[in-house]
Amino acid sequence: MAISRAHMLAAAAFCAAAALAAASAGDGFQFAILGDRTGDAQAGVYEQVWAETAAERPACVITSGDSIEGGDDNTAESQWQAVADAWRPYRRLPLYLVPGNHDIWSPLSERLFRKYAGHAPHYSFDYGNAHFTILDNSRSDELSGAEIAFLESDLKAHAAAPVKMIFSHRPSWLIPVALKNPDFPLHRLARQYGVEYVVAGHVHQMLHFELEGVTYISMPSSGGHLRLSKKYEDGWFFGHARVEVSGRAVDFQLEELKAPRGRGRITKAKDWGMTGLLEKPVAAQRAAGGSRSAGMPAR
Asked: First CA to last CA across the chain, in angstroms?
């Protein structure tokens, strides 16, 4: 599949912008994480998420995967073209895509991911004093041996980075972490190399776990349908994460969409657990009263 000159120029411009931004980031910067766009995409949600995210002027944006609905080689390119149109107003922002199961399902779909993402399904990058590793579990619920080997090699090469985060689409870690079982390869490497955050999408539900000093996050949806109870306090809402890095400190904030698709409530990662908000009745009362606490409405 030929890659057009326009795509090559766009990729070069992106790399130059990312390098320039990283050089000026110093030890402090703010970036955004978007959840899944698809998985029965809800009309208008993704566009609102991007508008609210861009208004905060993040240094860069990382997705949790599922940028297209996928599943059909015949329509895959037109789907990528449609989402690229949605990104166009925000092209000044460096964008890093995580490959989801809706993005890659066949050899052709992988080539298209490489074309529109501008990189391989797994890769890593630096921004300021932080290092980010992107893993590919788009075609399996588990991380393959090759992905674990890539992760180990990447973390070893960037062991000196003060802040490290790992991203994948599927939360392959979910069951062992929920059971407080630290005996699995990703966690052992995260502990060995001082990774602070492991982030995934796929579920469309905000969940938060802590295991031996590593924080695991399942991102809320940025467009894909809400499941089960569809209640905010259970972790089902549309929004994005705003993450601030200052030296070695990381502040992870979840921001629900504002009206008409949400109430603009803002929480910290620590306000959530494995079944939703940790203080559901109290949070509901505070949200109703406008308290600046768990579930507080945005200004």
From this structure: 48
